[in-house]
Amino acid sequence: MIAIDYNREPGASPLDRTRPLGPERGGGIWLHIDHGGPTRGCVSLGAGPMTELLRALDPGLGPVVVMGDAASLAR
Fold first, then answer.
1. Which of 17, 42, 20, 16 is CA-nearest to residue 7?
2. Where is this region: Disordered (predicted)?
């Protein structure tokens, strides 16, 4: 799994429950393997795509997760 850096203190562990934007804004968002059920804000991928992503990501390059439908992202 990969922690998404949303509503966390910069540099803090993904397990740190401090929420700078406030607890009502959520947190603890992850990219993880699909478990066949709903998530509470996480992004889930099949095992194959998740393996590809883990092999391709370089944390040293500061990857960014961008979410939205193809039409919105093309603007």
1. 20
2. 1-23
